[in-house]
Design a protein that fits this description.
The protein is mainly alpha-helical and 625 residues long. 29% of the residues lie in helices and 7% in strands. The strands form eight sheets. Strands 1-5 form a two-stranded parallel sheet. It has a two-stranded antiparallel sheet with strand order 2-3. Helix 16 crosses helix 17. The two termini are 41 Å apart.
């Protein structure tokens, strides 16, 4: 974890970090110089004190707090079941390690003491000291950052279940420490995956993809290594439904990227734990991660199908939700994340088991049975607790809805006001501004190519995608359009036509048969789309094409990428990828009738100049004026 290049230490923005950090933490102590003399009234009129009503909290303000700090009780899952803080402490994870994992630190949450230590470390590094010889290499500093609520998305609680004050809060006690042995816990909030910093103190790339600075909400936590973070937990098997399994019900079949054999139920708990860590951190023969960086898996299907984390700004423009488009409403998708993805023990309730059975029949039943077995074996579920008495950790209300209902797939719904407030907050967050240094002439030409039909020399991207400030189409794009070989060799694993939803099916065709992994079990048919042909054509939701300059991997699974955003986008749009690759829409490419596009192309020549301009335009897209 500690490997990093010394050449990154010369990043120019670190030099002024001491001054900037001191300014951020100095406060506003300016006084007033007023020399006027006031004579007090010897007989003042008594004044009856009035207690003012507490100010109303706006939905946006409440949503901001929910985004960063609301866990709905999942701190008990992450500490008592996964045992994540125990694992981090036991592994001696340092701040340098945390930055290498892609974690981000909010400088405005730091206590003066921790801020001073950080400033000192940066000054030492600026003077030539190796980071490994500073406090950034001390595991106890990582625990201090967690204790102060400064690690974005990691929320500390005390033994009484109260969220700890931020290090910068006047209520913070300087002798406070984080210690799970005395009952301290950590939970996870939205901001872990959907926030970063402005890079003002320690920029991304200085000591890994993580950063230190003022928190920036709504952006992707680029290069966040969710798999490695989960693997660091003492008990990663507590996340079993989201790991890649070898299914007894399917003759030891497994689905995922590469040759990983899946976690086998017949193995010992020690061997299953080792296999879980192999899945979460291991590589395919092609050098790709089984659980890719910048990805998260929100589908409890036992398939290795983590997808690229989406941005969470201008959520009013996006729909449906989940890469599979399984949720029409953002509140419903967020509820799934809170009640299942951040606390999968809800799958062991009566409604949770019914949800798994609804989705996957005997395979769903196997997931529930195996999950209960490992939680008992790892002492998460006490021996005295019967199967029908298992309670999830998440704080939520029962819905009374049928299993699989979008409003509460496992029969649970967290606080409705907070869900609505969270949406109000993310709806109004703007995408980051366009990066500096773009060529305005190329941007203008690229926009023209984006908008113009192929017959006029353009790429006709507008046929599926929208302008930066316009909502995307609220339906999925069928896989047969996004991956043309999809139906050529389709293996049906479970017929679900009696339920009116797509069969559990897997393509074996084409250049990238893993492209449909996220749709094997859960897709938009769960909410009735496509209504005209249930059980036949799954598809993917269209993304917001915003803040693309922050990425270098593209498509929902990050399977097309380059060294930079420009290189990755150019590869995505290059017809050299071929007509049987995912998202085969290129410039120049094919017409609507499938015929090769014939020039002249906008940008002239063989189309490469136009493709470069289109890439420049895509990097420029923002909702900011």
């Amino acid at each position: 974890m500690n490997n990093f290049s010394r050449r990154n230490l010369t990043y120019p923005r670190v030099g002024g970090a001491s001054v900037l950090l001191a300014a951020l933490l100095s406060g506003c102590n300016g006084g007033s110089s007023n020399n006027a003399t006031v004579t007090p009234d010897p007989n003042p009129t008594p004044v009856t004190p009035v207690t003012p009503a507490p100010p109303a909290v706006s939905p946006v303000a409440l949503g901001k707090s929910v985004f960063s700090y609301e866990t709905f009780g999942n701190e008990r899952f992450w500490t008592d079941a996964m045992r994540l803080p125990q694992g981090l402490a036991g592994a001696g994870v340092t701040p340098l390690d945390a930055l290498n994992l892609g974690l981000n630190v909010n400088v405005e949450a730091l206590s003066p003491g921790t801020a001073t230590a950080l400033v000192g470390a940066l000054d030492q590094i600026k003077a030539g000291t190796s980071p490994s010889d500073t406090v950034l290499a001390k595991p106890e500093v990582t625990l201090a950052l967690i204790n102060e609520g400064a690690v974005i998305g990691v929320v500390p609680f005390d033994a009484a279940g109260q969220r700890k004050p931020l290090g910068s809060d006047p209520a913070f006690k300087n002798d406070s420490v984080f210690n799970p042995l005395v009952g301290d816990r950590i939970g996870v909030s939205c901001s872990l995956c959907h926030a970063a910093t402005d890079n003002s103190i320690v920029p991304a790339g200085f000591a890994g993809p993580g950063s230190v600075g003022k928190q920036v909400d709504g952006v992707i936590a680029e290069k966040l290594d969710v798999g490695a973070i989960f693997a660091a937990a003492e008990n990663p098997l507590a996340y079993l439904p989201f790991l890649q399994l070898s299914y007894d019900a399917l003759g030891d079949a497994t689905l995922g990227r590469g040759s990983f054999a899946g976690i086998k139920s017949s193995d010992s708990i020690a061997d299953q734990t080792a296999a879980a860590r192999e899945y979460l951190t291991g590589m395919t023969a092609e050098g790709l991660r089984h659980y890719p960086i910048s990805s998260f898996d929100a589908t409890p299907d036992g398939i290795g199908n983590a997808t690229y984390i989406p941005p969470f700004f201008r959520t009013d423009l996006a729909a449906p939700w989940g890469s599979s488009g399984a949720f029409e409403k953002l509140d419903d998708f967020n509820n799934l994340v809170y009640t299942v993805a951040l606390d999968p023990t809800s799958l062991l309730t009566k409604d949770g088991r019914a949800f798994l059975n609804f989705l996957a029949g005997p395979v769903g039943d196997e997931i529930a049975e195996r999950y209960e077995t490992v939680l008992r074996a790892t002492h998460v579920i006490p021996d005295a607790t019967t199967s029908d008495a298992i309670k999830p950790f998440v704080t939520a209300n029962t819905t009374g809805m049928a299993a699989g209902s979008p409003t509460g797939p496992v029969g649970l719904r967290v606080d409705e006001n907070k869900l609505q407030a969270l949406r109000a907050y993310t709806d109004q967050l703007q995408s980051p501004a366009a990066p500096a240094g773009l060529n305005p002439e190329k941007v203008a030409l690229g926009e023209q190519i984006f908008m113009m039909p192929r017959a006029a020399g353009g790429a006709n991207c507008i046929a599926c995608h929208t302008a930066p400030d316009k909502a995307v189409e609220s339906f999925v794009r069928p896989l047969e359009q996004l991956y043309r070989p999809y139906s050529n060799n389709l293996l049906t694993l479970l017929d679900r036509s009696d339920k009116g939803i797509t069969n559990i099916q897997k393509t074996l065709a084409g250049a990238d048969p893993n492209y449909d992994l996220s749709l094997v079990v859960l897709d938009a048919s769960i909410r009735g789309e496509p209504v005209s042909a249930p059980g036949s054509k799954p598809g993917y939701a269209k993304p917001l094409l915003l803040d693309l300059n922050a990425k270098d991997d593209f498509l929902h699974d990050g399977s097309v990428g380059g060294a930079t955003a420009a290189a990755g986008l150019n590869k995505l749009l290059d017809p050299a990828r071929g007509t049987e690759s995912p998202h085969p829409f290129y410039f120049p490419g094919l017409s609507a009738t499938g015929e090769p596009q014939v020039g002249p192309y906008l940008g002239d020549g063989d189309g490469s100049a136009g493709r470069e301009a289109l890439t420049e335009y895509l990097r420029s897209r923002t909702t900011q004026q």
